[in-house]
Design brief:
- This protein has 177 residues and is mostly beta strands.
- The chain has a domain at 2-121.
- The protein is built from three helices and eight strands; from the N terminus they run βαβββββαββα.
- Strands 1, 2, 3, 4, 5, 6, 7 and 8 form an eight-stranded mixed beta sheet that branches.
- The longest helix is centred in the middle third of the chain and has 11 residues, at 111-121.
- The radius of gyration is 29 Å and the shape is elongated.
- The protein starts with a strand and ends in a 56-residue tail after the last helix.
Length: 177
């Protein structure tokens, strides 16, 4: 969405509220249940323009540990300094890409910046709970429902051969001299 900042550049206003949707790109394994809602304001304080916004998106997916359904609303703060085109050198733009948005001909388009920030900050793995115990590695039962009854004793297969050795009462493996 293009935001017209010409009245702010002319000094007619010092604050411009914003509230608009952006069509998102969902990460793999996640579905976004609607558009990203971006709301906040752009302020001008003596030639220094600052965009302060919040982006919200409802999402759904599966827990990375127990595979149960997970849904919620992801909230991301989004703050940038607004600069006019030609103010920064190419090197400054590349080095500080996360600090600035560029105003072109009095119009500001932040859609791509918000999408990029959303992809970079969205969790790589969804969890139903931070302490989710996951699934039983033997039977696959979700451990959040309680213990499954599977044996927790694991014998390392590298040492399994030693379990077949029978020792006599002297503890010498049955060898006689």
């Amino acid at each position: 969405m293009n935001i017209d900042l010409k009245p702010m550049l002319r000094g007619e206003i010092t604050r411009l509220p914003i509230d608009f949707p952006i069509e998102p790109e969902a990460p793999y394994g996640v579905s976004f249940d609607g558009d990203v809602r971006v709301f906040g304001e752009i302020t001008n304080q003596g030639g220094y323009m600052r965009l302060t916004a919040t982006a919200e998106i409802p999402y759904s997916g599966v827990c990375a540990r127990c595979l149960c359904e997970v849904s919620g609303v992801y909230t991301m703060p989004f703050e940038r300094t607004v600069v006019t085109e030609g103010t920064l050198t190419e090197e400054q733009e590349e080095d500080n890409v996360d600090e600035y948005v560029i105003l072109q001909n009095g119009m500001l388009d932040i859609d791509d910046s918000v999408r990029e920030a959303l992809i970079l900050t969205f969790p790589m793995r969804l969890l139903c709970d931070e302490d989710c115990p996951g699934l039983c590695p033997k039977c696959g039962k979700p451990l959040r429902d309680g213990a499954c009854g599977c044996s927790t004793k694991e014998i390392d297969p590298r040492w399994a051969v030693l379990a077949s050795i029978k020792f006599d009462e002297d503890g010498d493996g049955g060898e006689k001299e």
